[in-house]
């Protein structure tokens, strides 16, 4: 049985349906995902499990990490070979122009008689190393314009496309961030890893699986690392998981890309305990000047520092800052807390309008981290 056939039929159901709907209508899609989000699994699933349906375009997967040379010609040759499924295509020492013409011929043959083709570019960030990238962007755009609604692209990358490039305009209507798995997908993934990592090859109790999903938030790379940690004997706590080398490696890899708060929020991992309890996430410690803080501001900062890297819920903060007060109507107390946070930011942030340390977690509270 094929590796891809082991995936559940409804894997990443919402994301797959979104992509298929867009490309079936002739539109292009940009899938964005931070390290470990499962972008390769998503496009791989599309390529191997959705390619046979008659009403959909033919999906062809191009892994940009297979680019042997950082040249436009090597890129065109790679795409040609994947579309034609012929490794001999584009052989020899051909010019960039010759390789481009070869790709256009391959596309013409694939799209004749009303055919439809969707090229899935995995690890699309890798083409950023190409010398003469502007010409690649322009030619991809030109080919799409030549076969409008018949040729579509899906790109999977860690960061958004350059908004001023020739290519970016194709994706403005269809861009989304890939985040944690649904519970069903996470449960399937954890069960698979339980048999992989367990010495006896047995599946763990559903209570254990649910705890692993809760600890990792169902974020693919963290979930897999937590399964490995548990199989090695780590306790089912954030502290124990964070200390395990498998989790530590994943977290270090995640932060190596230096994602900002907007990217974290879009990906659904802002405040994720395993990520934000890591030393690699906190970096060099910043010491705040508290000499000008009021008593309430000091209480707020002290509580945030005591829970650094954690999401502090509004109720927790209110009780910590106003312990002597009767808890009053929610709207009033939330407003009082927000005003206090603003005053504290004025005193400790380099730019209070663009906070570096005290971050708002929408619908929940605040998080302090020192990068």
CATH topology tier name of the largest domain: Rossmann fold
How do the strands of the widest beta sheet line up side by side? 2-3-4-1-5
User: Overall 3D geometry?
Assistant: globular
The number of helical elements comes to 16
Tell me roughly what share of residues is in helical segments: 40-55%
Low-confidence sequence ranges: 279-285
Proper CATH architecture of the largest domain? 3-Layer(aba) Sandwich
Strand content: 5-15%
At the first level of CATH, the class of the largest domain is Alpha Beta
Largest sheet: 5 strands, parallel
CATH superfamily of the largest domain, please? P-loop containing nucleotide triphosphate hydrolases
Succession of helices and strands: HEHEHHEHEEHHHHHHHHHEHHEE
Q: Would you give an account of this structure?
A:
The chain has 371 residues and is α/β, with parallel strands linked by helices. It has three domains: 3-177, 3-Layer(aba) Sandwich (Rossmann fold); 183-274; 283-368, Winged helix-like DNA-binding domain superfamily/Winged helix DNA-binding domain (Arc Repressor Mutant, subunit A), CATH 1.10.10.10. It is 47% helix and 10% strand. The strands form two sheets. It has a five-stranded parallel sheet, with helices on both faces. A three-stranded antiparallel sheet has the order 6-8-7. Strand 3 (117-122), helix 5 and strand 4 (151-157) form a beta-alpha-beta unit. Helix 3 packs parallel to helix 4 and helix 8 (220-231) runs antiparallel to helix 10 (245-255). The radius of gyration is 24 Å and the shape is globular. It starts with 12 loop residues before the first helix and ends with a strand. Residues 279-285 have low confidence and may be disordered.
């Amino acid at each position: 049985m094929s590796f891809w056939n082991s995936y559940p039929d409804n894997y990443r159901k919402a994301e797959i349906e979104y992509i298929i709907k867009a490309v079936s209508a002739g539109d292009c899609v940009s899938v964005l995902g931070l390290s470990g989000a499962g972008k390769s699994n998503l496009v791989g699933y599309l390529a191997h499990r959705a390619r046979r349906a008659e009403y959909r375009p033919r999906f062809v997967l191009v892994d940009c990490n297979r680019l042997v040379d950082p040249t436009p010609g090597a890129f065109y040759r790679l795409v040609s070979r994947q579309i034609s499924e012929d490794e001999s295509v584009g052989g020899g020492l051909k010019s960039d122009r010759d390789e481009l013409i070869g790709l256009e011929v391959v596309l013409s043959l694939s799209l004749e008689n009303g055919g439809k083709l969707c090229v899935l570019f995995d690890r699309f960030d890798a083409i950023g190393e190409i010398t003469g990238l502007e010409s690649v962007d322009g030619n991809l755009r030109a080919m799409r314009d030549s076969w409008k609604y018949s040729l579509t692209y899906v790109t999977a990358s860690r960061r958004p496309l350059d908004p001023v490039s020739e290519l970016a305009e194709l994706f403005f209507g269809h861009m989304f961030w890939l985040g944690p798995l649904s519970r069903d997908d996470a449960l399937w993934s954890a069960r698979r890893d339980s048999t992989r990592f367990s010495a006896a090859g047995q599946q763990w109790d559903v209570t254990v699986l649910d705890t692993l999903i809760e600890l990792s938030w169902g974020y693919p790379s963290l979930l897999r690392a937590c399964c490995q940690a548990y199989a090695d004997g780590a306790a089912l706590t954030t502290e124990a998981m964070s200390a395990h080398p498998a989790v530590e490696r994943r977290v270090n890899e995640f932060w190596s890309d230096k994602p900002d708060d907007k990217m974290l929020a879009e990906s659904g991992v802002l405040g994720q305990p395993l990520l934000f309890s890591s030393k690699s996430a906190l970096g060099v410690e910043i010491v705040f000047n508290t000499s000008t803080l009021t008593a309430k501001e000091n209480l707020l900062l002290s509580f945030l520092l005591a829970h650094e890297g954690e999401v502090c819920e509004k109720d927790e903060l209110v009780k910590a800052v106003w312990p002597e007060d009767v808890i009053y109507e929610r709207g009033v107390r939330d407003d009082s807390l927000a005003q206090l946070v603003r005053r504290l930011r004025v005193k400790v942030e380099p730019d209070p309008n663009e906070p570096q340390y005290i971050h708002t977690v929408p619908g929940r509270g605040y998080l302090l981290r020192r990068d």
